[in-house]
Design brief:
The complex is a heterodimer of chains A (110) and B (112). The radius of gyration of chain A is 13 Å and the shape is globular. Chain A is mainly beta. In chain A, the strands form two sheets. In chain A, strands 2, 4, 5, 9, 10 and 11 form a six-stranded mixed β-sheet that branches. In chain A, a hairpin with a 2-residue loop joins strand 6 and strand 7. With 112 residues, chain B is an all-beta fold. In chain B, strands 2, 4, 5, 6, 9, 10 and 11 form a seven-stranded mixed β-sheet that branches. In chain B, strands 1-3-8-7 form a four-stranded antiparallel β-sheet, with no helix packed on it. Classes of the chains: A mainly beta (110), B mainly beta (112).
C-alpha cells in the first residue's frame, strides 16, 4: 500500500459546481497534512494546510479524518482557473521529508 | 525575486553524459530538499540537507547521483552517465521547518 494515495482523476467538472476529493494516508502517527496545487509543467505551490479542526480559505475547505486516515479538499463555485493537479502531502513523524501523493487532476469546463 | 531559484530550467543531454543542476534556496532557509517528478506522479524525495549536512538520501538516489551543499547555501545535484530513465523534472525546495517546502521552478531534464 502506498503511503499516500489519491484518485488520479481527471475530475471533469462544470464551472460553478462543487467538487471534492480525498486522500488516504497509511501512517496513523502522521502529524501534518497539506494540499498543494500544481499547474501543468510548473512547480507545486502550497494551497492550504489541513488542521484537525478543519479549515476554510474562501472557496476551499480542507478536512482531516484521523480515525479513517484521510484528508479531503472541497472546492465550491469552481472557476476555470481552478484547473490543476492537487497534491496531497503528509508529514509523518521521525522523517525529514514530506510524503507526496501522485495528485488528482481537476479540469473545470465552461 | 527572493524565491527558490534553479538553474538551468531545461537541459537536454545525450545518454552517458554528466549533468549538474544548481539550486539557490531562500536565503534564511537551512533546510534544502531535492525531489524528482515524472509525468503523472507526485514529487519523489531524493535527498535532504540541513545547512551543509546531507542528512537523508533516498534509495532512489543511485551511485550515479550526488548532491552537495558545501557552504550551507546553494546546492548542486549531479547525475553521472545519464540514462533515459533519468528524464524528469528535478525540483528543489527549501524551508525552515520539517513541514515547510517552498519550491523552485524546477529543472526539466531530457536524456536522448
Amino acid at each position: 500500500r502506498k503511503e499516500v494515495e489519491q484518485d488520479p482523476g481527471p475530475f471533469n467538472v462544470p464551472e460553478g459546481a462543487t467538487v471534492a476529493f480525498n486522500c488516504t494516508y497509511s501512517n496513523s502517527a502522521s502529524q501534518s497534512f497539506f494540499w498543494y496545487r500544481q499547474d501543468c509543467r510548473k512547480e507545486p505551490k502550497l494551497l492550504m494546510s489541513v488542521y484537525s479542526s478543519g479549515n476554510e480559505d474562501g472557496r476551499f475547505t480542507a478536512q482531516l479524518n484521523r480515525a479513517s486516515q484521510y484528508i479531503s479538499l472541497l472546492i465550491r463555485d469552481s472557476k476555470l482557473s481552478d484547473s490543476a493537479t492537487y497534491l496531497c502531502v503528509v508529514n509523518p513523524p521521525s522523517n525529514y521529508q514530506l510524503i507526496w501523493g501522485a495528485g488528482t487532476k481537476l479540469i473545470i469546463k465552461p | 525575486d527572493t524565491g527558490v531559484s534553479q538553474d538551468p530550467r531545461h537541459k537536454i543531454t545525450k545518454r552517458g553524459q554528466n549533468v549538474t543542476f544548481r539550486c539557490d534556496p531562500i536565503s534564511e532557509h537551512n533546510r534544502l530538499y531535492w525531489y524528482r517528478q515524472t509525468l503523472g506522479q507526485g514529487p519523489e524525495f531524493l535527498t535532504y540537507f540541513q545547512n551543509e549536512a546531507q542528512l537523508e538520501k533516498s534509495r532512489l538516489l543511485s551511485d550515479r547521483f550526488s548532491a552537495e551543499r558545501p557552504k550551507g547555501s546553494f546546492s548542486t545535484l549531479e547525475i553521472q552517465r545519464t540514462e533515459q530513465g533519468d528524464s524528469a523534472m528535478y525540483l528543489c525546495a527549501s524551508g525552515t521547518r520539517q513541514d515547510e517546502a517552498f519550491f523552485g521552478q524546477g529543472t526539466r531534464l531530457t536524456v536522448v
